[in-house]
Amino acid sequence: MFGNVNLKARSPSGIATIAGSLMCLIAPAQAYDLNSCNQLLPTSAVQRFSTEGGGADFGDEPHLGGQPLGDAVICWSPAGRVAVIGKLYADDLCLPFRPCDPLTATVKIKFQRTNGSWTGTTIRRKLTQGNLASLEVKKKSPMGSFKKVNIRLFTFQTTDLGPTGDVLVAERNFQP
Predict the structure, then answer these.
(1) In sequence order, what DSSP letters do the residues of the chain get, joined into one string?
(2) Which range marks the domain in which residue 79 is found?
(3) Domain assignment of residue 123, yes or no
């Protein structure tokens, strides 16, 4: 009905490319962990997560299919401090005959103290002119005792029609 399908390798480099692509797909996801946390501050509890927000993602390698497959972490210290470790991804797929507009992915991190007050917001940005770019983010809270972490992801894009402004694409809150 459909006839015979005849697949032939055209060159050794083609076979190597296919094999390399398959290895990327079956490679285990990386993830930050307790050891990563302890390098930043003494840690008693770890929360793993990844967040996919379209053009702005947060997690760890590998980043496939538009999302991080590895985890970022929230590190809770027995002394009351907290830290965030992960990678911010600016993810803008460019297709043939479609030029890419610049895209900026932004992560905004803030910490809530046990008395209810919030710290200032830490902002990290990564720009791409197409395809995927990443930035490792490591942020510790100031001294004190904290009960919540707020992480927000934004995209900003300038198109032929003008700038989009910061667009919130994901928000997560974490508590011990």
Answers:
(1) -----------HHHHHHHHHHHHHHHSPPPB--HHHHHHHS--SEEEEE-EEETTEEEEEEEEETTEEEEBEEEEE-TTS-EEEEEEEEEEE---TT-PPPPEEEEEEEEEEETTS-BPPPEEEEEEESSEEEEEEEEEE--SS-EEEEEEEEEEEEEETTEE---EEEEEEEE--
(2) 28-174
(3) yes
